[in-house]
Specification:
The complex is a heterodimer of chains A (416) and B (300). With 416 residues, chain A is α+β, with helices and mostly antiparallel strands. Chain A has helices at 16-26, 32-44, 60-65, 95-103, 120-131, 151-167, 203-209; strands spanning 3-10, 72-77, 82-89, 107-113, 136-142, 174-179, 222-229, 241-245, 251-252, 256-260, 264-273, 276-281, 286-291, 302-305, 311-322, 333-338, 341-354, 361-362, 373-386, 397-401, 408-414. In chain A, the strands form 3 sheets. In chain A, strands 2-3-1-4-5-6 form a 6-stranded mixed beta sheet, with helices on both faces. In chain A, strands 7-8-13-11-10-14 form a 6-stranded antiparallel beta barrel. In chain A, strands 15-19-17-16-20-21 form a 6-stranded antiparallel barrel. Chain B has 300 residues and is of the alpha/beta class. In chain B, β8 and β9 form a beta hairpin. The chains are: A alpha+beta (416), B alpha/beta (300). At the A-B interface, α2, α3, β2, α4 and β7 of A face β1, α1, α2 and α6 of B.
Chain lengths: 416, 300
Amino acid sequence: MEVLKIATAGSVDDGKSTLIGRILYDTNSLTDDKLEAIEKNSRSKGYDYLDFSLATDGLVAEREQGITIDVAHIYFSTNKRSYIIADTPGHIEYTRNMVTGASTSQASIILVDARNGVIEQTKRHFFINNLLRVKEIIVAVNKMDLVNFEEGRFNEIKDQIQQLVDSASYKNQNITFVPISALKGDNVVKKSENTTWYTGETLLEHLEKIENKDVYEEAQARFPVQTVIRPKTDEYHDFRGYAGKIYGGDLSVGDEVVILPSETKSKIKEIHFFNEQFQSAKRGSSVTITLEDNVNVSRGDMIVKANEIPNVSKSLNATICWMDNNPLKPLSKYYLQHGVNNVATKIESIDSILATDFSGETTEVSELNLNDIGKVQLKVNKPLFYDSYDENKGNGAFILIDSQTNTTAGVGFING
Amino acid sequence: MKNILENNALENEAIFIIHEVAAQFEKPVLLFSGGKDSITLVRLAQKAFYPAKIPFPLLHVDTGHNFPETIEFRDNLVEELGLELIVRNVQDNIDAGRVKEETGKYASRNMLQTETLLDAIEEFGFDACIGGARRDEEKARAKERIFSVRDDFGQWDEKNQRPEVFDMLNGRIDLGQNVRVFPISNWTELDVWSYIEKEGIEIPSIYFAHKRPVFERDGLIWSANDEYVYRENDELVYEKIVRFRTVGDMSCTAAVESNAFIIEDVVREIRESKISERGARIDDKRSEAAMEKRKQQGYF
């Protein structure tokens, strides 16, 4: 079945969990036992309505504090397709979680409280979705019931968002506005009678119409080798298959290819998927390919079409979102994982920190702290075969790993 | 030769993850319970490495209270695919006095599995344990990473998880640590069943409707087995057509009334179901935070 991944971002009070609970409730995705648990919990807290936020706030600490502190994944389906929601907190301390959620999503829902309009947090959500080039943005103007479902207020907020759109660098986003009340259910799944002036779709109607495109948009084909398959059985004595996932474009038998970094040339001999062979495989497929020539290929190598060579360099210019408590400092060393390829890297310089409210960048910078987003120059110990993030998401992003703690300390987007 | 490979996003994601495990770790193992999720994992691993064999063993932590149908199924599968199977028994730990068996009405060996699992990880030096947990099963699991790092005591630190961006998986660990890997994290129960149907994967017979001696307690249907499942005198045994939606320890898995005798009927039943999968897991009913607490202690 088709799957659409959506990220939601919103602050503690925007009613994000309530919105998700509402979607689950109105699509009959809450099972009786879950609904019962919600009713029981709502009653014990003395609410006279159903507290749908209880459907999503998973961890004990969250229930205690009544907030969402990590990325939670929520699943529901309609007759048309399945949905996965990556639910992330909106507060500044959770920028890294927002980046994480947006990185795998085809669409993002940005929640705005109709009373407050666009606040700093809204700008940050929009900024991150723009930085990560999430194609479909839905601005859900929530709590319309608290502003008497006024069209004027809705339009004011649209104008405020339009200003952000004007100053954003990535221009190919589709932005849709929906006036809703998550608590009361207006325009979430069911059309509201309170917003007769609104002729657009409900939130779910809109989601249903979004074209399901891979997060990794169409680009040149990249095949990073994950592992080498060598059966060493009598039947497959000389079989050497290269297993990996295809990014960017399709691969076909007979394609002339180059193996990086050795720059050896060969041709695709076979494309295997389990016990079948295919003439061609689409991007996104996990396949095992064999080559015409007996060449030396190992994990981390990349197979590309002979006329589609990526950039090859030991110097990178990237925008980095820092995710670790230990700040990123110039001259520090990290492991850099680019897809499935691992190299060592040294931070040459930190050139600026980007303001997530679109007010520009600060250039006098000594370090990147947790949740900072900045422009950084790096050197790697072996040449990297990369595309800019703009050209090829799958081959234009990397993570930095702290060699002391092994944690994933930051994520980088390679600039062209 | 077929023309074009159409891709299935969830299957591709799972195979990608399994390839990463094989490449990043020295000693992976696949945790096999005989349930539908771990059977699905075996199929995915088979696909990932074909025409080579699955390059890691299966580990079954046997509570001793398993459904006999599951054990029979397990042994056949292992033989058919030529896999290596390691079995470690909860009973051994009970006999050695290292863990204490629960008693009373709700006694279950579910919690005791943790200790046996941790012992096996240490005994064999496993650095990655592939499991069939899914995020849609339970609220605490909804926050689980695909590569989930456990410390020397097998514990999960839910507040200090590594961010997972795009599909890049960071499996770097220190000696003594291990990673729990969940390739079907993003699958729902219905996705698993649909896949089993589409692929024609064999599953243990208890997943299909059959006649079984049962009794009722707390609105759930329990398997009447006086050896493994405690039963009060006034809890009367009768026969009923039931099936199991999830297969765990006999003492913590309730049956559901069902007429689904074939896989197509099971898929339809799940599609129309109004009760969640773990609604029939007695171990989760203990408290709102039951799963999270078990996970912190090293449960899988």
